[in-house]
Specification:
CATH architecture of the largest domain: Orthogonal Bundle
Shape: globular
Number of strands: 12
Radius of gyration: 25 Å
Structural class: alpha+beta
Number of domains: 3
Number of helices: 14
Distance between the termini: 60 Å
Strand content: 15-25%
CATH topology of the largest domain: Triger factor/SurA peptide-binding fold
Length: about 475
């Protein structure tokens, strides 16, 4: 049973990206509706104003500054015209949230802000003064950094007050979620959902059989791995149940991995996987074996569903009634440790990968201990424990990390792995069979339902904010240095 819950997020979320104020959410795929309301035409003559938002305004320089921040982060950006519009849309939403939060009396005092900054510094193993120096070194002023941070904290608390705290998940929803998964296990497949409408946001449930082949392996090993994968793909296209095929394959060859990824949005799937199954329907196997740097993957789409939709039971019911009474379930847990190099300005992917590869070589040559390297170089809260993350079960970690970890033998060290948090070097210490208790299942189910519902609720809330605000767009196309139109 796969209840997706990213436990690596709370472990790593405290790792603040020094010098890179987190505005990556600016370039979003959601086009927010634009309200247009009458405004005094004299405002059009105000030099530098791009938009009027209720009783406030947004300047062209604010747009320029935000774009510069994104460029410094190395984010992949659209063309200049679309980028300015997207950034303005985001700034408008932020302005509305700040205005509403102020009306609700949400204020961050200077004393509270200093405490927040001190906590950020401590989590990055820096003094307050050292953090200030690093911020200034990125080209922004410390006062600007503090005000930006203050706004982000206010917006975060306003969202929690308006959306998060009002998200209710009933016991019936949890029971239904667990019941669906119990039926999936009992009948050997995942309940099918109504397919999402074309272009609608969706979640995809994928299972994979993975044949690991080292990137540096010779042509013979590569050919053998590909041959195994193609045989499995041919079998999967027949009448054999994919989950049973995966379990039997792993039993015959423990080096081969079988994994059900659980429901994930396309952006949370490996890009190679999504490209391979982009046009594959629920219950169908990918057209070809997928080759990655780590080996060969045979993929099956178990289900595709609209994000807001709950899975429905299959039309073909089993011949005998299937019990959905909650019960303990056997799972494999892994104890692993890692070294994390965070995404930040000044550290390229190539530099991070090269550094971690150097640490890996030291561990393999037995000239350094992994735990000691983690204590010295890892940039998250697990560093003081030698990078040890404790016992982790299926769905506890972000997908990229979990998939790399599952491919490792005990004691083996991974190649550098990239996730949303940065670059990781992973070592598996131990594995064990454990029981996923009914209480834990309910906890995971509640988290999975909450994650699925929260994004939709948040987007609906943003649209409501935008629709009820008085917004007048004046000039989005020109940079601050250009003459006003």
């Amino acid at each position: 049973m796969m209840f997706y819950r990213s436990r690596l997020k709370p472990i790593l979320i405290a790792t603040f990206i020094l010098g890179a104020i987190p505005f990556a959410g600016v370039v979003c795929s959601q086009d927010l509706p634009k309200a247009s309301n009458p405004t005094d035409s004299k405002i059009r003559n105000i030099d530098g104003v791009a938009a009027v938002v209720n009783t406030g305004y947004i300047t062209r320089k604010e747009i320029d500054d935000r774009i510069l921040s994104l460029q410094k982060q190395g984010a992949k950006l659209p063309d200049a015209a679309n980028l300015r519009q997207l950034v303005l849309d985001r700034l408008i939403i932020e302005k509305i949230q700040l205005q509403n939060a102020e009306q609700e009396g949400m204020v961050i005092t200077n004393k509270e802000l200093d405490k927040i900054i001190a906590d950020i510094a401590a989590k990055n193993k820096l003094s307050y003064a050292e953090l200030k120096e690093k911020i200034i070194a990125t080209g922004t002023t410390f006062e600007r950094y503090k005000e930006t941070l203050r706004d982000e904290v206010v917006v975060s608390r306003y969202r929690e007050y308006s959306v998060d705290s009002k998200m209710k998940i009933s016991d019936a929803e949890v029971d239904n979620f667990i019941g669906d998964r119990m039926r999936a296990i009992a009948v050997g497949s995942t309940p099918r959902s109504a397919p999402p409408e074309k272009g609608a946001p969706e979640e995809i449930d994928i299972a994979q059989i993975f044949i690991p082949v080292e990137a540096g392996a010779g042509a013979g090993a590569q050919a053998e791995g590909k041959k195994q994968a193609e045989i499995l793909l041919a079998s999967a296209r027949g009448d054999v149940d994919f989950l049973q095929l995966g379990a039997a394959t792993v039993k015959e060859n423990p080096k081969i991995k079988f994994q059900q990824l659980g429901y994930r949005t396309p952006d949370r799937l490996p890009q190679l996987f999504y490209e391979a199954i982009r046009n594959t329907g629920g219950g169908q196997v990918a057209n070809a074996v997928v080759k990655s740097p780590a080996g060969y993957h045979v993929l099956k789409v178990l289900d595709r569903r609209a994000i807001s939709a709950a899975p429905v039971q299959q039309q073909a019911a089993p011949q005998e009634p299937v019990s959905t009474t909650p019960q303990n379930i056997a799972i494999t847990q892994t104890m692993a440790r890692h070294i994390l190099l965070k995404n930040r300005v000044g550290l390229t992917d190539q530099d991070a990968e090269r550094r971690l590869q150097g640490y890996r070589d030291q561990v393999r040559a037995k000239t350094s201990d992994f735990g000691e390297l983690a204590k010295k170089y890892s940039e998250d809260g697990s560093a003081q424990n030698g990078g040890n993350l404790g016992w982790m079960g299926p769905g506890d970690l972000v997908p990229e990390f979990e998939q790399a970890m599952n491919r490792l033998q005990i004691g083996e060290v991974s190649n550098p792995v990239k996730s949303e948090f940065g670059w990781h070097l992973i070592q598996v210490l131990e594995r064990r069979e454990a029981q996923l208790t009914v209480e834990k299942q309910r906890e995971f189910a509640r988290a999975a339902i909450r994650e699925r519902k929260m994004d939709q609720a948040y987007q609906d809330w943003l649209r409501q904010l935008r629709d009820t605000a008085t917004v007048k767009i004046l000039n989005v196309d020109d940079a601050a240095s250009a003459a006003p139109r």
